[in-house]
Amino acid sequence: MLLIFAMSGCLQYSFTGISIPSNVRTVYISYFVDESGSGMGDLGDILNETLIDRFVNQSRLRLSGNPEDADIIFEGRITGYSNQPYTVGGDDRAELNQVQISVNSSFRYTEEEEPEWDKSFSGSFQYDPNVDPIDGENNAAQEALNRVADNMFNDALGDW
Fold it and tell me: How far, in Å, CA of 115 to CA of 106, rounded?
């Protein structure tokens, strides 16, 4: 009897920590244009794919291809990109570099004029520039965007 009671209590919690109102079924994620001047041509694509993955695969929401058919809308742009030394060794060479990416985004219900939030997010990740600087920077950018997407997802769905 105690085991049944304990398990029934666990079933009421979401494993992802999100809760979505029953009337919210679809999400529209606009393309996040890269205005950072990073020179990396695919940051917007990476962020959009990551956001779609979060909202479609980690919630019950379906992706809408049209903002008029969606219950919630995400819009934004990539505003900043930096790749700078994070730690420097004794020979004044970078031992680790850090990629930091900033994104401005808004989240709103389609029936509302004003967004629920309109804020900046940033994510960073370090890599060793002495091992493979090009792949290292690309992987660090991907991880930084993963962190941005996680924060956006949690801020949007965690507050309900």
Answer: 6
User: Bridge-partner residues for 75, per DSSP?
Assistant: 106
Task: Quote the CA–CA distance of 99 and 112 in Å, as a whole number.
Answer: 36
Calpha distance 24→60 (Å, rounded): 9
Report pTM.
0.83
Q: Tens-of-pLDDT digits for all 160 residues of the chain? A: 333 333 333 333 334 455 677 889 999 999 999 999 998 889 999 999 999 999 999 999 999 999 999 999 999 999 999 999 998 887 777 899 999 999 999 999 998 889 999 999 999 999 999 999 999 999 999 999 999 999 999 999 875 4
Q: In the block, which residue shows the tokens 């994510």?
A: 123
